[in-house]
Amino acid sequence: MTRHYPHLTLILNPIRSTSMSLDSLIIHAVLWAGMIVTSANAQKPLLSQLSAPPSNEVPTHSGKTQGEDLHEAALDWYNHPNAEHLGEIDAALQKVLPLALRQSPWVIQVPTWQDAHQYQAYHEAGALLLAKGCTLLNEGRVEEALPVLKTVDKNLPYSLLLRPDQTFLPVRKTLSQHEQACHLRIAILTQKVATFEFPAENDEFDAESQTQAVEDLTLDLLKKRNYDALDHFVSQARLRQLTTASSRWVSDISVQSLHPDKHESDEAWLEIGQHIREWRQKLPTSIDAQIVELHYEMGAVTRDNPKTKKAFLAKFAPIQKKIEDLGPVSPLLPQLQMIFSFSMNEDFSVAAEYFHAGYEKFPDYASLVMLMHLNLLKQDNGRSLGSQFLTHIAKTDHPQTVALALAALPPLIVPVCTEGLDAPLLEASIQKAIAMHPRSLSLRNDLGRLAAMLKMPSLAHEILKPVGTHWDRQKWMGMEEQAARLTDPAWSEHQPNGK
């Protein structure tokens, strides 16, 4: 079947049945390109404006100045966590929480900064609970923080900490980030990453919060020169192939996070490089310090932007030699080689060789498969080659790889990547992925959205039933009506809108 397609023959011949879960170095390079822009500092609302009843139908706070003062105090307590402030926070909560709980049924989604003032006590209480929860988590007092998290999740899920400059922090999402970071920080500092598992997801923010925690803690450990803890963390994550709830490899997130903010200067890049070299010098046998250094050097070549292919090859040659000397100790290394090979338009067999080197050792690393697939699409008869390639993967003992890979792609790319694939084969792939990750809200959002895009509404509804109201507004951007229908317990495919 494949003899007429040399590119496909190069790839398929060595493939064995194997389990894979999606990591996303390349896939995230194309993910949502500017569509996902929300952050803790966003000036725009996370959701649409609050459709509120007249203010005389619900208890409201009469002291606007007092409310502004409470938000400023909560912001100060949040920015400067100190256990000595807990008494003041509790005293303030006693005043506003009863009214906030009475306002709670009226707040059904995240409002704008302006509309949040209609339910001042609701947001004051949320802001105070954010300050309290983060103070406790910063102290490592996880058990004491749990009631705070539960109160926010149950009663104040859309509360905001309002800043004077008309920006805000979403309380539930921010608490999720701090909770995940607290658990991970304890595991790192107590040298227990070898047995660490992320806490079970409570909402649609936790998978993203896990990624954020990994990024923040990795960079923090590097900047504080805590190289022993950093090396323990990154090496154990790599050796265990530890993943977040969204199936991202923690070791990849760590390596990719070691860069300054995009708004920082060239000096910040040099500072990061200096820290990485210090790590290498202190722990000269550390494989992970070498991997990080190689990734940083590759980024430096890209930033220098050599003007000619010859100049690029000259800069990359020593990096390539180091990668070859290390061998495929991490799937990132053959992936970097594949990226370079495709960028230089080398013969397809070169990239195929790198693919085999990584795939043979890391069969669970599906981004290698997707990287090869995306580049197959660019060849002559590309769509046919890509279809045959994914069909082969879907027919192995671990078909979930195809679903996990497709679910991470931007919606506009999915039809191209699924053209020619058998629908029952795709459905089986999605079902296997759900069976392997039954408790992941993040993957249920991803796979439910994929099923919806593939015109499999019954499967999408079955996947999304446990998600309920925790469907991810970012992932479903542009498909919000479908998400609302498919997560409705009363949904039926036979209803007029059951599509």
Topology diagram in text:
Elements: H1 6-12, H2 27-30, H3 64-79, H4 86-103, H5 120-138, H6 142-155, E1 160-162, E2 168-170, H7 171-189, H8 206-223, H9 227-240, H10 250-257, H11 266-282, H12 287-304, H13 309-326, H14 332-343, H15 348-361, H16 366-376, H17 382-394, H18 400-407, H19 414-418, H20 423-436, H21 441-453, H22 457-464, H23 480-486
Antiparallel strand pairs: 1-2
Helix pairs in contact: 1-17, 3-5, 4-5, 5-6, 5-7, 6-7, 7-8, 8-10, 9-10, 11-12, 12-13, 14-15, 14-16, 16-17, 16-18, 18-20, 18-21, 20-21, 21-22
Describe, in short, the structure shown.
Among the domains are: 54-166, no CATH class; 173-322, no CATH class. It is globular and about 70 Å long.
What oligomerization state is this entry in?
single chain
Integer-rounded radius of gyration: 25 Å
Mean pLDDT over all positions = 83
Helix content: 55-70%
User: Looking at the structure, what is the overall shape?
Assistant: globular
How far the N terminus sits from the C terminus, by CA atoms, comes to: 37 Å
Largest sheet: 2 strands, antiparallel
Uncertain residue ranges: 1-7, 13-65
What structural class do the secondary elements suggest? mainly alpha
List SSEs in N-to-C order: HHHHHHEEHHHHHHHHHHHHHHHHH
Approximate strand percentage = under 5%
| Strand runs, count | 2
Provide the spatial order of strands within the biggest beta sheet: 1-2
Tally the helices: what do you get?
23
